[in-house]
Amino acid sequence: MGKNRFFGITSRFLMILAAGLLLLSYLSAVIDPARFWFMSLFGLLFVPLALLNLFLLVWAVKRRSRTVFIPLVILLPAIFCIGRYVQMSSKDIVPEGGRELSVISYNVGRFALSSKDSGISGINQCTDSVLAFLKKKDADIICLQEFYVRNTSEIRSYLTKKFKGYYAEYYMFTSPSGSYGNVTLSRFPATGKGRIEFERSSNLAFYTDFKVGEERFRVYNCHFESYNISLSGIVKALGAESSTIFKETGAKMRSSIIRRPRQVDKVIKNIENCSLQSVVCGDFNDNPMSYTYHRLSRGKADSFMEAGHGFGATYSYLWPMLRIDYILYPESFRVLAHETLKVGYSDHYPVITKVEI
Question: Which of 54, 139, 189, 238 lies in disulfide reach of 104, CB 3.0 to 4.6 Å?
Fold first, then answer.
C-alpha cells in the first residue's frame, strides 16, 4: 500500500513538473529574453518537452490514472504549435494567374564545412558546389548569409562573374583573411537598399527594395546573433571537471540570447517605418517557439507552414530539432511551394519557396 502511494505521488510530481516546463516553453515565445534570458532555453526544448508529456499521457491512459488530465491539458496548445516544426499533409496549391516569384534563403557558412582539413582548396570546392546548386535552382531572389570571399577589393566583380544575370547587393565585414557577410542576388534591379547595424556584433541585416511588375516590396536579408558556441564546446562544458568552461559557455549563450531581441526590434522598427510590404528572410538563429519568431512573423505568412511537408528543420546538427532559417511573406502574397533541401554544403539547409504576387 505504501509503495503504491509513493509511486502515485512520484508520478504525479513528474507529470506536474513536465507540464510546468512545457508551459514555460509556450511562454518563451512572448517573453522578451532581453529581460529574462533563460526563457529562451525552454523554447529550444519545446519538441523534447512535448514528446515527454505525450509519453506521460500515453502512460497515464494505459494505467487508467486519474492524473491523465495533467499532460492532456498542457498538450492542447501544442496542437497549434507543432505545425511550426512539422507539416503532416502535402498541400496542392493551384496558382491563380498572378506573377510567380521564387526565393532562396541560405546560410552558406562561409563555405567552410568542406574545408576543415583541406584549407583554401576545400573552400574553393565548397564554393563551386554551392554556386552550381544555386544556378540549378534558378531563383528570382537569393538571400545568402555568411557569404565569404578572399579578395575584399573584388567583391562586386566576383559576384557579377559568378552570378551572371543577377544584380548583386551586399554588406560585408572585412578581415585580414577576406570578407564575409550577407548577399542578396536578384533578377530585378534594386530601387533602394540599406543596412541595419547591430551593436557589438559581426551579424547584420540589410534590406533591398524591388519593383516587380506593379508590385513594390522590400526584402530583408537577416542574420541574427548566434549562440557563439559549438557542439564540441557544449560537450566540453558538460564533461568538464572544472566549472570554468561551463561558466564561459553559459556566459556566451546568455550574451547572445540578450542581444538577439534587440537586433530583432531594430528590424521590426524599420519594417514599421516603411510603406512597402516586406519579405523577411534569413538565419534567425532561433526556433519557432521563440520571441524572435513570434515578433517577426506577426502579420506574415510562414512559407513552411503554408506549403511545407515533413520536418522543417534547417540546421543539420540535431536534425530534426532545429528550424532556424525562414522566409516570411506578406499575407497578401500566396505561397505556392516550399522546400528545405538536405544538401551538405553548409551546416544549414537552404530554404526555397515560390509565391504568387
Answer: 139
